[in-house]
Amino acid sequence: MKKRFIIYLAVVAGIYVFAILIAGGRLIMFWDFPTLLLTPFVPLILMLGHYSPSEIIDAFRIAGHCERSDVDIKKSLLFFKTIHKLIMLSGFFAVILGIVMILTAYPSENFSKHIGNYMAVCILSGAYALFFVMIICIPFESALEKKLIR
C-alpha cells in the first residue's frame, strides 16, 4: 500500500462531506452511537478472540509498507478478509435489529415519534458497514494480494 493512501482517503472523505453539505444535509445526521457500537466495534471485539492486539497492528503494518515473508502476508490477508466478513455481517445484523425495532413499535401510539430513530439505525448500519469495508478492508486486502503477486 502506498503511503499516499492517507491523502487519497482524506480527499474521498472531503468529497463525501462536500456532497452531504451541498445536498443540504448536516453531518450530525450521520452520527449514530448505537450503530457505531454495533458495526465496527463488535467485529473488532470478535477479532480479539483470534488475534492479539500486536497481531492486528502487524497486519496493518505489513499491508502498509513492511516487507515480510509470504506466510506473514497471507496471515495479514486472512485477518483483513475475516474482518471484512465480520463487518458486513455485523452491519447486516444491525439492519435486522433496526427492522425489528420498527416492526415492534408499529402498533404503539408513539410510532411516528420513534420511526425516524429506528430507521436511522437500520440504514446507517448498512452505510457504516459499507464505509468501513470501503476504506479499510478492500484497500488493505488489495495491497496484501498485490504483495503476494510480486
Describe this structure in words.
The chain is mainly α. The chain has two domains: 1-30; 31-149. It has five helices and no strands. The protein has helices at residues 5-22, 33-47, 53-64, 70-105, 111-149. Helix 3 crosses helix 4 (70-105). The mean pLDDT is 88.
* Residues in helix, %: over 70%
Q: Would you identify the regions where 5 or more consecutive residues have pLDDT less than 50?
A: none
**Strand pairing plus helix content: what structural class?**
mainly alpha
Proportion of residues in β-strands: under 5%
Count of domain modules: 2
Radius of gyration over alpha carbons? 18 Å
Number of strands: 0
The run of helices and strands is: HHHHH
**What is the overall pLDDT average?**
88
What characterizes the major β-sheet? Answer: none
Q: How far is the N terminus from the C terminus?
A: 13 Å
Count of runs of 4 or more consecutive helical residues:
5
What sort of overall outline do the alpha carbons produce when their principal axes are compared? flat
List the helices and strands and how they pair.
Layout: H1 5-22, H2 33-47, H3 53-64, H4 70-105, H5 111-149
Descriptive labels:
flat, single chain, about 0% strand, 5 helices, mainly alpha, about 150 residues
What would you say about this model in short?
The chain has 150 residues and is mostly helical. It has five helices and no strands. It is 80% helix and 0% strand.
